[in-house]
Amino acid sequence: MSLPPGFLDELRNRASLSQVAGRKVMWDSRKSNQGKGDMWAPCPFHQEKSASFHVDDRKGFYYCFGCHAKGDVLTFIRETENVGFMEAVEILAREVGMEMPARDPRAQQKADRRSELAEVMEDAVRFFRRNLSTGNGQDAREYLARRGLSDKALDRWEIGFAPDGWQGLFDHLTGKGVPEDRIIDAGLARASTKGKRPYDVFRNRIMFPIRDARGRCIAFGGRAMDPNDNAKYLNSPETLLFDKGQSLFNHGPAREAAGKGQPLIVAEGYMDVIALAEAGFTAAVAPLGTAVTEGQLQMMWRMAPEPIIALDGDKAGLNAARRLIDLSLPLLEAGQSLRFAIMPEGQDPDDLIRAKGPGAVQEVLDTAMPMVRLLWQRETEGREYDSPERKAALDKALREKIKTIRDPSIRLHYGEEIKALRQELFNPRRGGQGGSGFRPRGGFAKPPATARLTTRASMLVAAGDGVETRNRIAVILAALIGTPRVAERFERGLEMMDCTDPDHRAIRDIILRRYHDETCDMRGEIVAEIGPHALENLFALRHVAINPAVRQPGDEEVAGMTLAEELAKLDAQRGWSAEIAEAVEDLAHGEDEALTWRLSQAAQARNTAMRSEHEDRAEYDTAENGARINRDERNALNALLDRIGHSKRQH
């Protein structure tokens, strides 16, 4: 359905986000200022006691400083009510008294058809449930009892049974007046190719309803009772209701549980999810008979930033986990990744729970490995590295995988982790395995505490990775403390700043929480929350003290120009720091072909930025410290280029 221009703007203007959110949260009266639309509460999206969920009614946005959930009033309705965008629009329109525009006739027809199919699916759920309790379902009931499912669990999951007949469900539905085409379109029956009556898709199977996030039954999964059946598990065909690659089993309940702090666990099948949920791991989901798709992965990340992939402890389970790496690497973001919990060999989560109880599963989850470790295991397990050529092949394969990561900061950290693991493998004196393959089936040894000496000694990397970034962040924070009102224009950039210094991170969060309060004493607020040392250390820095925005507090124009420039340079720095780090690693591996060009380009870009910054600071004759840092960084680049030239002359 298309909405007329301006409809959404008017809808958002009429709505009060604090009123809508107020139905889901309890406002903190001490921190909130209702008159200014500045409201604080414990977050509805994750379990917490402090009030870190902030609503700014004037701007119509919310942000949680704990789980980083953010959005506008429509996003809030979608996330808390488990509805789609248009449904959220309809809910809000009814609340504020706006009439929804007339639907496009074709869109209306499609929506009506979905509603009709959903009704047929609910009829099928009831049919299958009744059949489980009849004599026909005796074997199915006994099987489910052996799997440890109680009568209450059967009711909770609405498990049913499809009788062993060609038209059992079809006859039941047509007897209720449901048209044949509707039964076929719902994926419950297939048309005969021999001119006979349509026949049931599911026969002699235990039936698991698959519901979407809103709770509508959109499909079924059927487990065959006949051991000779060609397909042990069978899902509904794709329909107007069901898109297999965009659906998850137990989506709605798992989403709610994950929002309350439960870890999101991704298992392989229905029985694994049911066993996990019945054992207390209620935020469990499963893909539907296929490898995890990008759409399903994005759905998982909307529920939790770091889902745990809990796959079977067999070759197929491990291969599925390894395939997921290639899908996930390009999509990684800061704080958004996967962890992998591989079950004991030959067992799935259901087996482990029945054999040893929930505690055994918790132990496996507690030792879930980060994705970088599984990537390393995939590329090294069972291989010998007894020659330079084999080592070079490993380096090349890993670099190719790491280059698929789009985020330069994550790419840099992956490179550092891989270097540590590589050093451990190839250096026996540090506990590695020398020329033997790395076989971490029983778990990973702790990687060395420090990275390669050549890399750590590189002043270029040290500066790019820490000093310069911290210097820029210090200037930004000091400028904001003196002129907090400009924070509104740069809120997104401030949220994205990678504050490795805990004091910087705490100051940044206080500023983001309090900048809109014109009566707030920002310095006093910071001192009250984290003590006076943070401000003392910040303003004692020479490059901070000489900055115009710090020397002229309250000047919004100067502060705005400073923030715009420093944030832009931070953004650029993330890119060329990653490029330089890759070049340094190539140098360490002896790959100097095309490296001179890459590093010289990085050097040129960096030096251009440094010249620009030096010129900007030239009018302040006290900027000696900043200029010295820039000279040292250029010298480090030039030293690296000299090393390349020296290496070539030797060969």
TrEMBL record:
Identify the residues that the record assigns to the Toprim domain, covering every copy.
Answer: 262-346
Query: Transmembrane stretches, by residue range?
Result: none
What are the alphabetically sorted keywords of the record?
DNA replication, DNA-binding, DNA-directed RNA polymerase, Magnesium, Metal-binding, Nucleotidyltransferase, Primosome, Transcription, Transferase, Zinc, Zinc-finger
Show the InterPro entries listed in the entry.
DNA_primase_core_N_sf (IPR037068), DNA_primase_DnaG (IPR006295), DNA_primase_Znf_CHC2 (IPR036977), DnaG_bac (IPR030846), DNAG_N (IPR013264), DnaG_primase (IPR050219), TOPRIM_DnaG_bac (IPR034151), TOPRIM_dom (IPR006171)
Give the EC number(s) listed in the UniProt record.
Answer: 2.7.7.101
**Which family, according to the similarity comment?**
Belongs to the DnaG primase family.
Q: Which PANTHER family match?
A: DNA PRIMASE
What's the name of the protein?
A: DNA primase
